[in-house]
Write a structure and sequence with these properties.
The structure is a single chain. This protein has 112 residues and is α+β, with helices and mostly antiparallel strands. The chain has a single domain, classed as Sulfate adenylyltransferase, CATH 3.10.400. The chain has 3 helices and 5 strands. It is globular and about 40 Å long. The mean pLDDT is 93.
Length: 112
């Protein structure tokens, strides 16, 4: 059974299949070939709410990297072609409550 992964902030990019990389706090257990259910929201659902599954994705690459190491090409792979590196870093820090030098899990995936 596939594990659920939330794309709350980037659901539109996943629906449009313009996102191919995600950065996460944790998720160190993933392995190449793992299949995940991409969902809008997986946790904190109110009574009666159901998981809104977008699609399934397959992990093609997993590695650790610092947030500040992100390149402009990676920002585009994250689904933000109109963001600068700095804009992406600031958005990520604000949404995730972390520092610019946080060690993240970079997950590259393909759509099934």
């Amino acid at each position: 059974m596939a594990r659920n992964i939330s794309f709350f902030y980037t659901a539109e990019q996943v629906r449009n299949k313009t996102k191919f990389v995600t950065r996460r706090l944790g998720w160190i257990f993933l392995k190449v070939g793992d299949v995940l259910n991409a969902c809008v929201k997986c946790q904190g659902l109110k009574k009666g709410e159901k998981i809104d599954k977008i699609c399934q994705i397959r992990v093609v690459s997993v590695r650790k990297e610092r947030l500040y190491k992100i390149t402009q090409a990676e920002v585009i792979k994250e689904g933000f072609p109109n963001f600068s590196r700095q804009q992406f870093i600031e958005m990520f820090m604000e949404n995730m409550g972390c520092a610019f030098n946080v060690l993240l899990t970079r997950i590259e995936f393909e759509y099934i």
